[in-house]
Design a protein that fits this description.
heterodimer; A: 212 residues; alpha/beta; Rossmann fold; 6-stranded mixed β-sheet; 6 strands; 27% helix; 25% strand; B: 239 residues; 7-stranded mixed β-sheet; 33% helix
Amino acid sequence: MNSKWHAVLWLATLFPSIAHSQVGSAAPCEIHVWPSARLNSLTEGAIWNNVLDSAITPHGTRVTERAVPRTALDPQEQRTHLAAIDIAALLRAPGAIVTIHDDVSKRRVTGTPTGRQTSSTAACYRELTIAKNFFSRSGLGGRNLRTLALYDDFGGQAVPVRSFVGWAATQLMIFPAKKPDNEAAAAEELAAAFKSNISKFGGYVFAEPRKK
Amino acid sequence: MNGKSLGLAAAALVAATLGTPCLAQQTSPSTEAPGQAPTAATQQAAVADNPCEIHVWPAERFSAITTGWLSGFGIAGSVADSAGHAKGDQARKAAIASALDSEGQAKALGSLDLSALLKIRPSRIVLHDQPLDRKTVNKISTRRAESSSTCYSELIVADVFYQKAAIYGRSLKTLFIFRDFGAAKDKPAIYKGWGGNGLKLFPPKEGEDVQAANNELVSVFKADFEEFARNASRPKPAS
């Protein structure tokens, strides 16, 4: 033990308030996570092109596309997948307390970021908001799951000291299932794509900005 | 632990003591909470002693077309061009549909003085949070909202379209339909037209922060409406 450590120990013994403040500053970070509302779709088919949710919401008898289950990647399912990801490691806050919320966030992807979405006053506070999940399909572009997410690092402040909003995409080969036999594999693939998108997003958050 | 850590701890303590966390959640006055009736509408800025209403519906169709120099080489060139940009156009459509979702469109239009821009009598703005079924927009000629107003009009956002062309660059075009019923229930006076303006930031590259590009989409969408409104309110030549 060197002389600096001795000095710190002496100070801590003499002034318990200093020792207390050190313990306080070592309190774990808080990361709050919100799922998005249900999956949206934008697809190109024989008749209905580029109409929002045409692959999910039936338009009478004119549906020509393979149907996407309405419950696919609903908030409940997203929460299950998010719980399986090491969010603390992904957002480079090892040991952080991760809270996955039940409700869908009202944080918008446009306009200026506002304050914390919870009543927490933690000195190290971050938010990860899943804003949208899109199922995209086109004849030439294939099928993809696209996830739009927001990262807000508040530090100890009331408004974010840093915000990042970005997309991540993963190609799908099975989803949506053509036959009932493929439904389990399709659901598994969609779950893996969602988790992959969250991991990619984590990478984008901390990537060096591209040189223009 | 060293002197620097002590300093940081002290700074954190001061910050925790002095900091006043803001608990406000971001809210939007123009939409209803998820799960509410899809036909629910938000009414805005009531005009006293005035029966006029303008009902506004957002778009549900979002397109993106990117063409390069290959399109100048006939059908084969066009196909190769489309194939080359297919994935990118998928991403751009999703990005536009997110930044300009129903809530985003309603919020953007709700921030404008629609009556003044369209040069109609001051009207109570009713923002609908669910789009109309696109295939019915041109077919149904009666009022789309249950209203008995004697001064009733509708503004329908029909299409939002991103285009990038080799020579003309990037733009966001929006198709609006203005239907003025007056006191009638059917057969309104219709003005349909596009507004289109250039984009400088959108689309961002994959993995980039999209905040600036999203905000640009919203401001260009508003500019598209202003352009449409100028054309719609221009005196029509007598035929």
